[in-house]
Amino acid sequence: MKSNPSRDMESVKPFPARGHRFWSFVGRQLRHPAGLAGRTLGAVMTAANRQPVERAIEVLNPMPGDRVLELGFGSGYGLERLASIPRIGKICGIDQSQVMFEAAARRNQAAISRGDMQLVRGPIADLPWEDAIFDHALMVNVVYFLGNDGRDIREIRRVLKPGGTAVAYATAKSSMRNWPFCEPETHRLFDAGELKSLFQAGGFPAELTVVDTVRLPLGISGYVLHAHKPI
Questions:
Q1: Residue 7 confidence (pLDDT) above 50
Q2: 164 phi and psi, to 5 degrees?
Q3: 216 by DSSP, 3-state: which?
Q4: What are phi and psi of 181, to 5 degrees?
Q5: Whole-angstrom distance, CA of residue 145 vs CA of residue 185
Q6: Largest alpha-carbon pair distance within the chain?
Q7: Residue 15 pLDDT more than 70?
Q8: At how many degrees (to 10) do helices 21-31 and 35-60 cross?
Q9: Sheet strands side by side (includes 117-121)
Q10: Which pTM was predicted?
């Protein structure tokens, strides 16, 4: 029996429409990955974040011996890239998701075993490190999930040495507002000025904070912010 092409097409279900609970679920998983869905999305985001991670680390430009903290490290690709930089100093990372912590620990087992890397599970708002011990802080696609009160950024500023730098990548609001999983309950979106204001609210001076626009494949626009802690 020959198949009916039109009937076959009708049997193919498209993605749910914007506002469907499926997209709310995806947004919550991106904010805090958990379970099998979190592990699956973590693998997807590793692929999606490769170019932003490379751009952000290029701007970060760590020197030999520099200590680097990555916030919201996901499955650990950024940590792995940092660990590949010759003679880099101690690398630390924090993420609130247990499944991402486990994935990053597996990916970076060798560096952890050597004592070159320390991973912690917990919130950015309460970092378990003393004041002024890191030369750099890195965040890639994390700022959407930070609190509005500036506490997270103040914590990042606290653990940076005087003259230390924070680099953050964020996809532009103009791109993200078209993505159905980006809902106000899970994602706070930014234009360039709003991203800079977030870091100003956390204590980084406007004159020491620069936001550059970057272009990614598929017509996606993003920002790389580079902020210095005053000496």
A1: no
A2: -70, 165
A3: strand
A4: -85, -5
A5: 10
A6: 78
A7: no
A8: 50
A9: 117-121, 91-95, 68-71, 134-140, 160-171, 220-228, 209-216
A10: 0.88
